[in-house]
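for the writeup, i need someone to sanity check this before i put it in the appendix. the sequnce is what the collaborator sent (i think, or maybe the updated version? ugh). structure was predicted straight from it, no edits. if anything looks off just tell me and ill rerun, i have time this weekend
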Amino acid sequence: MKLYIKNMVCNRCIMMVKSELEKFGLQPDAVQLGEVDLPRALSADEKEQLDKRFRELGFEIIDDRKTRLIESIKTCIVERIHYTEEPLKITFSEYLSEKFHQDYSSLSKLFSEVQGMTIEQYVITQKIEKVKELLVYDELSLSEIAHQLNYSSVSHLSKQFKKVTGLTPTHFKQVKENKRIPLDKL
């Protein structure tokens, strides 16, 4: 049985969900961002109790097909931006169309209706959070960050960063305040 879980955005989320499943006496076959494979189906009572516990932890079991698709799109974007070092060689629209075997315009329309923002806005938000993370780590130059996140230039990254945060990347680095936003709050 496959469960789809909302708000799983990092490896700690995977560990926490797996731990909670084990506390319920369930040994998952696999746990990954947004998805859990269980060896058996859950009873309605088990599913309700598990969902209640997950909600206490900031997660949620998703039953609706549209919501599952939206969460899968979000998970896919988060994985590409935050956990994949290799730059994407195609646009996000092409990538998502191929991944979900659907026309991008229909994915985009559904995403906008449910999320209240476009896929492009969501991608930009995630990219800016990744830029913030990399700036705080202070291991890469702005040029290296721009390349890693597939920006056409440092100038483009800087303009987008300022538009979203109100600060230039250099000023953000100097401020040294924690202005990052947890991924599950985006």
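The beta strands are 2-6, 30-32, 35-37, 60-62. The mean pLDDT is 90.
thx in advance!!
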